[in-house]
Write a structure and sequence with these properties.
The chain is an alpha/beta fold. The chain has helices at residues 3-13, 26-33, 50-58, 73-78, 84-91, 108-118, 131-138, 156-163, 165-170, 172-178, 182-186, 191-202, 205-209, 216-228, 236-243, 247-259, 288-295, 307-326, 371-374, and strands at residues 39-43, 65-69, 96-100, 123-128, 146-150, 263-267, 281-285, 331-336, 342-349, 352-358, 379-385. The longest helix has 20 residues, at 307-326. The radius of gyration is 22 Å and the shape is globular.
């Protein structure tokens, strides 16, 4: 059978998740914050469901609501340097003002501050898909005036709570390949097309609108290089040689990719041992599907050469979501020595460490963690994570 036909057949054979609304972990938290005198800000990548989350929160509420999407030029113009008279006319008798893609308006932080201070009866609800612009523009003006939350692609915990354990187990292989964006999970027969459109249309949108980004071809090459090095240590100098640039430009672009919620960096842990790597880092994607879309590689797991890297990316990103939604603020690292001793993933919390080894193949789950680490640092738990036990940690 032709490989493309096999892949297409594999995707078509997957059972779409039930088309019910998957309740987001943030929903209850945000509902408790309504009309408490602060703006509610939700940031996250495009298409992760920020607007849908707000719409679900507002469903059934009786307050009059004004919705503005600043991707639209007219709405953007309304909130760019408005006068007080403009704001009074715009807000009128609305009790809730919901603003999507707030980073698109110039000086949006000052505008939000003016609304917050002069219309105390109004509940402001704001989304943004680029923390680079949004946080820079609202942090100082909105100090003490906002609650800010991060929304990720759908988490294992959210799917489990809404659809049950069977759905979670059945969708694991698919999520390793196609990721966890809401539209991808709800319409898996169209997953490849959805991800291709997502990466082609939205992935670069915010980045290319940021001042100073004038090399989309370089950005694309860098994403491909990062996707190919998934799970490996990353050198900015080596990346620069690969993409034909310099290390400072590469580091700047990686920083921008992180601030637009496409990738995140995992630093090396180093404190005591002489031969620990100190300045190294790994770079992971927030979503497996975006990573595979960058490479245009949706080959089934059984035919792939990178299931271990996909498993590593999946678990670490899922653990990131679980910790964030649970309010567990652990620092995350990997650990490696010059003699190649390593631990895939470490969390430090309250001065103690939880070490994880990530094994896609359960038969390799008897791995012993390096004694040089466990004897040097206060390790409270050391766990080998496989598809058989990963749910216990998410």
């Amino acid at each position: 059978m032709d490989l493309y036909v096999f892949c297409t057949t594999f995707a078509a054979s997957l059972t779409d998740l039930p088309h019910q609304m998957i309740t987001r972990k943030l929903q209850a938290k945000i509902e408790q914050k309504l009309f408490k005198g602060k703006t509610i800000v939700v940031v996250g990548a495009r298409q992760v469901g920020k607007t849908t989350l707000f719409n679900e929160i507002l469903r059934g509420r009786t307050e009059k609501t004004l919705r503005l999407n600043l991707d639209e030029a007219e709405a953007r113009e309304l909130l760019t340097h408005p006068t007080m008279a403009d704001l009074q006319q715009l807000i009128a008798d609305n009790a809730i003002v919901m603003i999507d893609e707030a980073q698109r308006a110039t000086d949006i932080g000052l505008t939000l501050k003016r609304i917050q201070d002069n219309f105390p009866h109004v509940q402001l609800m704001v989304t943004g898909s680029s923390s680079l612009d949004l946080r820079a523009r609202i942090n100082e003006p909105m100090t003490g005036r906002k609650w800010e939350y991060m929304l990720y692609p759908l988490s294992t915990g959210e799917i489990l709570h809404s659809n049950g354990i069977l759905s979670v187990k059945q969708s694991l292989d698919s999520r390793l390949i196609y990721g966890s964006y809401p539209d991808v999970l709800n319409y898996q027969t169209e997953a490849r097309e959805t991800l291709t459109n997502l990466t082609g249309s939205y992935l670069y949108k915010d980045l290319l609108e940021i001042e100073g980004i004038r090399k989309p071809a370089l950005l694309e090459k860098l994403l491909v290089a990062l996707a190919l090095q998934l799970g490996s240590e990353v050198s900015y100098n080596e990346l620069a040689q690969t993409v034909g640039s310099d290390s400072k430009t590469v580091e700047k672009y990686v920083d921008l990719l992180e601030k637009c919620f496409i990738v995140f960096r995992l630093p090396a842990f180093s404190r005591n041992l002489r031969n620990e790597l100190k300045k190294s880092r790994k770079i992971y994607f927030f979503d497996n599907g975006v990573r595979n879309a960058v490479l245009q590689n949706f080959t089934p797991l059984a035919l792939r050469g990178d299931p271990g890297a996909l498993w590593e990316n999946f678990f670490i990103s899922e653990r990131l979501k679980a910790n964030h939604y649970a309010g567990h603020y652990a620092k995350s690292y990997f650990w490696r020595t010059k003699s190649q001793q390593e631990i895939d993933y470490i969390e430090e919390s309250d001065g103690t460490f939880h070490a994880f080894e990530l094994k896609w193949n359960p038969k390799r789950a008897t791995t012993t963690l390096p004694a040089s680490f466990t004897q040097t640092y206060p390790v409270t738990e050391a766990t080998v994570i496989t598809p058989e036990n990963y749910l216990d940690y998410l």
